[in-house]
Amino acid sequence: MFEDAAGNNDKNNNSNSINSDHTFSAAGGNPKHPAPSEQHFSQTLLLQPLHRQTTEISTATATARDSDSTALDMSAVSKQHTDQTAAAQRAPEAMAETSSPPPVLPGTTGASRRAMRTPSASLFGTLEFKVYYAAYLIVVPNMVYTMYRASSPARDEYAEYKHELSDGWMFGRMIDLTDGQWHTFRSNLPAFAGAMAAYVVLNGVVKAAMAGSKRAGAGRNPAGSILPALVFPCLFATCFVVALSGTSAVFILALALGNYAAAKTVGGRRWAPAVFWTYNMAMLFANEHYRGYEFGRMAAGLAWLDEWRGILRRWDVTFNLTMLRMVSFAMDYHWRVLQERTLGRQQVDAFAVKPQRPEKQRIEQSCAAADYSLANYWAYLTYPPLYLTGPIITFNNFVSQMRDPPQTVSWRLIGAYGARLVAAVLLMETVLHTVHCVAISKWGQWDSFSAYEISLIGYMRLTFIWLKLLIIWRFARFWALADGVETVENMRRCMSNNYSLQQFWRDWHCSYNRWLVRYVYIPLGGRRTSSWNTFVVFTFVALWHDLSLRLLQWAWLIALLFLPEALATWVFARPRWARSRGFRFLCSAGGAVNIIAMMVANLVGFGDDSVAAMVDKVFSRQGLVFLAVTWALLNVHLQMMFELREHEYRREYAAIHGNSTDVATAAGSRSKRQR
User: Fold this and answer.
1) Residue 307, class by beta-carbon neighbours within 10 Å (0-12 exposed, 13-18 middle, 19+ buried)?
2) Backbone angles phi, psi at 21, to 5 degrees
3) Cβ-contact 71, 34 below 8 angstroms
4) How far apart are CA 264 and CA 90, in angstroms?
5) Rounded to a whole number, what is the largest CA-CA distance in the chain?
6) How far is Cα 525 from Cα 282, in angstroms, rounded to an integer?
7) Residue 390 and residue 82: Cα distance in Å, rounded?
8) Across-strand partners of 72?
9) Is residue 105 a contact partner of residue 345, using CB atoms and an 8 Å limit?
10) Which of 22, 69, 569, 663 would staple 517 via disulfide (CB 3.0–4.6 Å)?
11) Which residue from 196, 177, 54 is spatially nearest to 113, judged by alpha carbons?
12) Of the candidates 438, 7, 511, 3, the residue with the CA atom closest to the CA atom of residue 186
């Protein structure tokens, strides 16, 4: 419901984001002859084996845009590489010993497993789905009315939290701006928009001025100490960082130089990743402990420098994102050195400057040797559109796009994406005027609310978090697109539209998930060590967000939830279950449990002190009936979701294999044969 209103559907996302995706798990089943019904629900709770290291391979066709594209094992892919790649894997500095993926060369593609089957017949016109439509017409309006009434000024509780609200401009109601992060972003949105416009215009002027010079067309010229496309971003970013952090920019520069020196000094050695991670984790903890450092603590005579700390006095809060970029540069350079030893500098550089490479190759193939310069590194760390919030982009991908801008970015795409951003902001304003979920949660007195009202407030709290992060990341991505840089879309689906834990983390903070897989999960062994690897990954995620016990509990709870999903996959993802008529109902039963579990886990992780009381009341004896009804309604919701995903696939299948009439005929014939 909210995903569609925000313009956040798979079709829109995949049209301008990367076509391949890394996840902690892969779709199960027989890769050669998948059963139709099994493949129909390949992203459900029952068909998501955890114990499989994956890298999904993109294709140039519309099939590659399928969000459920094939996950292929790294070892299987590496066997299809060229002889030079095989030689690299046989080298003494083998990738398994250096905690790095094998070198990736051009031409590695794979087809989607879903393209190997005929889509199933549509169920939208059946009696079963007509019952589902009636359920939606009754339940959804009731949910909206209940949430609206729970925040009504006519309720006695309203006076207790009214002081938390602000003057509104819609429906004659006040607006809930209790969340500090959203309040700050909303208040400064005009300034952010002005900075974006100034940056894009000035950078465009500089690029146009350089277009006639010999250094124009960076993708076709030898690499220099700094790419021409990064000259203005580097200068603008330096001023940007100084304005934001003031004298604290000295600390940012010092920490960045330390990481650069470590990468250049030990890159390519077997123990180099340990050095990079030790430095960056120690830096993360030190930043938190010393709260961004103070000159006065270092020397009394320097205390005057603390008087001007810039717009963001706590620069260390947003520096966590910079830390991810620092690790990306160090590890990408480390793998570059290894590739150069086995393939030779000339050949690696030739791959690096190849024009219009697919997104996957931009990420996994090393840049030219001269691209790993200090100037390019600094421009990457402080790139203004992505500096404060992300989405996260790897160093290889960033420099590749600066050298050879992707042709997929057009002004038509930018305009359409901007319209989706405006729609998401208006939806957020509507939600915060009608449902005061953050203020009520902060107040935390649940005795006068029913279990139904409490659960809806909790649901809206999580929806608010999703929509808040979607808008912030969408604005940053919009800015980057306007500058010609393409990044992955974050927050593609909300909790209520994800019935698989694997799919949830793939879609929630997509760019961070890919970073984790590339730089943490696979180097630690991937699926071979997933029994403990997953806990390490989520522990890092919690510590990276904040050094708090609540987030550690959240991380370990999420990691534990992967275990029953893997067990369910092992038990039920077999042909005799997949061919059963009731298989999709079995999938929805497990998926409904998964949605409830993910909502509770995220309330624990991202909620406040009142969450415990909220959860206790929902799971009390009085709330059990409500939970049972909720579980049943989620089954209805999931059946609709399954069919909507299959409908998306029918359209893509028709675009590749024939018109929709032919597809429908084939699906109908197949359905009759099965009966």
Assistant:
1) exposed
2) -145, 135
3) no
4) 24
5) 86
6) 23
7) 35
8) 55
9) no
10) 22
11) 54
12) 438
Q: Which pair of tokens denotes residue 211?
A: 């277009």
The model's confidence at residue 19, banded by pLDDT at 50, 70 and 90, is very low
**3-state class of 55 per DSSP?**
strand
544-578 burial string, b = 16+ CB within 10 Å, else e?
Answer: beeeeebbbebbebbbebbeebbebbeebbeeebb
Residue type, 552: L
Burial category of 431 from C-beta neighbours within 10 Å (exposed 0-12, middle 13-18, buried 19 and up): buried
Q: Is 350 helix (H, G, I), strand (E, B) or coil?
A: helix
Q: Which of 306-310, 347-351, 442-446, 610-614 has the lowest mean pLDDT?
A: 610-614
User: Are 226 and 378 within 8 A, CB to CB?
Assistant: no
Tokens representing 468 are: 């808040």
Question: Residue 152 in 3-state DSSP?
Answer: coil
Long-range CB contact pairs, 598-603, < 8 A, 24+: 598/495, 598/498, 598/501, 598/504, 598/561, 599/458, 599/459, 599/462, 599/495, 601/554, 601/557, 601/558, 601/561, 602/462, 602/465, 602/495, 602/554, 603/458, 603/461, 603/462
Give the Cα separation of 199 and 483 in Å (integer). Answer: 8
Residue of 557, 468, 511 whose CA lies nearest to 183: 468
636-674 as b/e, with b when 16 or more CB fall inside 10 Å? bbbbbbbbebbebbbebbbeeeeeeeebeebbeebeeee
Tokens found for residue 108: 């590695």
pTM for this model (two decimals): 0.78
Say if residue 448 is exposed, middle or buried (CB neighbours under 10 Å; 0-12, 13-18, 19+): exposed
Cβ atoms of 364 and 396 within 8 Å: the answer is yes
Q: To which residue do tokens 């699926």 refer?
A: 527
Q: Six-digit token pair at 136?
A: 């939606």
The answer to whether residues 28 and 42 touch, using CB atoms and an 8 Å cutoff, is yes
Q: For residues 438 and 607, what is the distance between their CA atoms, to the nearest angstrom?
A: 9
Write the single-letter amino acid at 105: L
CB 259 within 8 A of CB 323: no
Q: For residue 188, how far is the Cα from the chain centroid?
A: 24
Let me know: does 48 contact 27? Beta carbons within 8 Å: yes
3-class DSSP state of 56: strand
The gap between the terminal CA atoms of the chain, to the nearest Å, is: 34
Return the closest-CA partner of residue 5 out of 144, 133, 201, 145: 144
Q: What is the set of active-site residues?
A: 545
SS3 597: helix
Strand segments (E) across 297-447: none
Looking only at the bridges linking them, the beta strands covering 71-72 and 55-56 are antiparallel
User: Which residue is listed with tokens 């997104």?
Assistant: 359
Whether the pLDDT of residue 54 is over 50: the answer is no
Return d(Cα 528, Cα 50) in angstroms, integer. 10
pLDDT at 362 over 50: yes
Q: What is the mean pLDDT of the chain?
A: 77
Q: If you average pLDDT over each of 88-92, 253-257, 547-551, 660-664, which comes out highest?
A: 253-257
Q: Is 422 exposed, middle or buried (0-12, 13-18, 19+ CB in 10 A)?
A: exposed
Q: Is 175 helix (H, G, I), strand (E, B) or coil?
A: strand
